[in-house]
Design goal:
By secondary structure, the protein is α/β, with parallel strands linked by helices. The chain contains 15 helices and 15 strands. The structure holds 6-O-phosphono-beta-D-glucopyranose.
Length: 466
Amino acid sequence: MAFPENFLWGAATSAYQVEGAWDEDGKGRSIWDNFVRIPGNTFEGTNGNVAADHYHRYKEDVALMAEMGLKSYRFSISWSRLLPNGRGEVNEKGVEFYSDLIDELLKHNIVPFVTLYHWDLPQALQDDVAGWESRVCVDAFAEYARLCFERFGTRVNHWITFNEPVIFEMFGYVTEAHPPAKNDPHLMYQVSHHVNLAHAKAVLEYRELGFQGEIGLTNVISPAYPYTDSAADREAAWWAESFTFHWFYDPILKGEYPAEYLAAIEEQFGKLDITANDLALLKQAKSDFIGINYYQPARIAAPEAESLCAVGRESNTGAAGNASFCGRYRTVLDTAQFEYTKWRWEICPDALRDCMHRIKDRYGEIPIYITENGLGDEDTVVDGVIFDETRINYISRHLSACKQAISEGIPLKGYYAWSWIDLLSWLNGYKKRYGFVYVVGSTLERKKKQSYFWYEQVIASNGESL
Ligand code: BG6
């Protein structure tokens, strides 16, 4: 039982959560720049204006990665830094930032793994065409993707089109917790289709340009388990699995929608605009890999009311929340039976192994990257030492699950801890920390946590020292 020699030991961030410099050097506004300014939307009104100031300190950050021995860094590009209006005029200063970051990584033999869309849509596209509600946005994304491939494609060989469509679509169009904060399930499913088309177009752009690297998409999986063995809970779990898993992965990995689920939502919410040409496009755009973000499983019970969209929200209070999501089901929290983080996210490493098997069973031998996995916590600082054993424990157990999955034949090629450095947790600001590197709030000084040293050993031993 061992990790392969060329396993990518990584860590991840995203542009809005880490960069800061929200209006510098010609960057346009994103929907998050505006959303955080509306009182009540985020914990104590926290925003990404400065974040971890990675925009100005990226050299120091990359030096810390190199010192640790990190093999790969997953980061996202801010669309509105490159194209302030979402399309058209290119902001060369924005291109320069990412170009320099990529060069710095390569100088230290760190593989850049780039996400094109980690939720920060240019506000101009939201204002001009209603964002993902419109097919114009699909073409705008293809234009943006092409620009990224043209400018960085000779140096970047790993591309993720979208991060977690399930979250930005569900939170943006049902629970109202993310921009554009609407509650319209029909629209959510239509948006979902547009995002799939945008992914497909970007994949085809990449191929057309003749690059030999790999391109795929990342989603989060919370594998569904019936809370009890009752028929009602088992059926509810089927609905949860159909929505959070099959609805999002089938179009990417099979080029089609799960027929039974599609029929059910069209019956309840009305027809979706999905044409034969659209379906042909989805079929054509084969992904080279699938990225999995995994944090927790979902314990599923039958709903209290029969509805396809039970509304719940992720907390933005700086404390644990109790979210329940779309579908003919509800999620159950059972602290007596299961283990949870401080934010009440269930800790269950075996479900990570299980979800890789679910992918393999349904889609075959598609290469997998774990593109996010980690623990949000308030770290303890004693005499300047940052103790985060809970994080070490969490990541270690999940890596053991990965190791086991590899031994069972799962084609897992890399693991990216979330996150490289403390950054903005979307709704819980800087209170919920994830990084190997601690950021001092007042000075933005970087400090290595205990987990930094631990992961350094894990990488050096290629996972033997877990
Ligand atoms: C994932 C996102 O859903 O979860 C990350 O891709 C995010 O961007 C992470 O930070 C943890 O969620 P949160 O709400 O604690 O920031």
